[in-house]
Amino acid sequence: IFINMKKLLLYLSLVFTSLFALEIMLRFYGYTPFRYFDYKVNSIHEYNEVLGWKPKKGNYTFKSKDDPEKFNKVTIMKQGNRFSGNNKESLGGIYLLGGSFVFGEGVSDNETFAYYLNILNPKYNVYNFSVPGYGTVQSLLMLKEIKNELKLPEIIIYGFINHHKVRNVARGEWLNHLLQNSSKDSKFKPKVPYGVINKDSNLHFHSPIGYIMLPLREKLALIAVLEKIYMKQITKNRKKQQHQVFHKSIYEMKKVADTMNSKFVVVNIDLNKSESDKKLTDYLKNKDISYVDCRVPNFQKFKIKGDYHPNKLGHNFYSECILNFLIKNNLK
Q1: DSSP string across 158-176
Q2: DSSP string for residues in 56-106
């Protein structure tokens, strides 16, 4: 028994020494334990078992990145939409769906393209139901949730950026990013509903999932690396399907819009003009879905300083681009 204990202690010592050496090596090559970017983030969101998260009613202020002296105002209405101007009685509606670009991350209520569009197009009430971090799947689920909340809209506009493809399949790096940008002390950690293509080539939705959280992850780089390896392995097959999921999710939005007797429009508002949109336009044309390219002509001019979100010039550009499309297609 004494000999066996000596061997056990020797083995444990070797394991501990090897792990210690591996930890040192990982630190040397720049790997770090998991860390939250902001421990005291003031979130406008609350947990939602279907959508993952959803804005909660209230008035919020955030310091502007463009102007250190300015504070941006964010107003969330009772249905979860962001304020986009005063409603006009008995008028038709436009629903806006999408992520932070449509929501207006980094700008005030009166600087979003939803607000500008509401002014430029007095025939409609514009409702901004977009949510920071949402992709196509969450936008689709949001549309289904709000379908009976207000008067049925005449037009539904989905504004997307290319990164929505990553979000739609809950890629591991996206789940990690969401967790790092959440509050460490929050009771609910970010979870994302996602889509997959099943064996019958149909789109199937899964309940929200989050990033794996192992013990000692904030102490050891080794644990953080193991988490990343695990998440990469379980999401690699979904990565291969992200383009199909993106296209089919848009088509599902079109079908929901049809049940609401609403005109459905897809708008490309990415800040990256270099990527081709031919595959998407071919798909949308085949499905008889309206598409308009509203990508800005100059990345630096239309983005917030030190950020990748559009500034108020970008939002103004989007509003005019969309309005021109509505006029051209007799939707104004």
Answers
A1: EEE-TTHHHHHTT-HHHHH
A2: -SEEEEEE-SS-TT-EEEEEE-TTSPBP-S---TT-EEEEEEESHHHHTTT
Buried residues in 2-16 as b, exposed as e (16+ CB within 10 A): eeeeeeeeeeeeeee
Does residue 155 come out as left (phi exceeding 0), alpha (psi in the -120 to 50 range) or beta?
A: beta
Q: What is the pLDDT of residues 11-46, one digit of tens each?
A: 888 888 888 898 899 999 999 999 988 655 568 999
CA 135 distance to own-chain centroid: 5
Give residue-wise pLDDT tens across range 120-165.
988 889 999 999 999 999 999 999 999 877 778 899 999 999 999 9
Q: Diameter of the chain by CA atoms?
A: 89
Strand 192-197 with 203-209, pairing: antiparallel
What's the start-to-end Cα distance of the chain, in Å?
Answer: 87
303: DSSP letter: B
For 330, the token pair is 């007799």
Which among 54, 140, 47, 139 is positioned nearest to 99, based on CA atoms? Answer: 139
Residue among 332, 327, 320, 324 nearest 117 (CA)? 320
Please, are residues 138 and 132 in contact by the beta-carbon 8 Å criterion? no
Contact assessment for residue 117 and residue 294, using Cβ atoms and an 8 Å cutoff: no
The dihedral over CA atoms of 22, 27, 31, 32, expressed in degrees to the nearest 10, equals: 110
8 Å CB contact between 268 and 160: yes
Q: How far is CA 188 from CA 35, 45, 142, 213, 318, in A?
A: 17, 11, 19, 13, 34
- What letter represents residue 202's amino acid? N
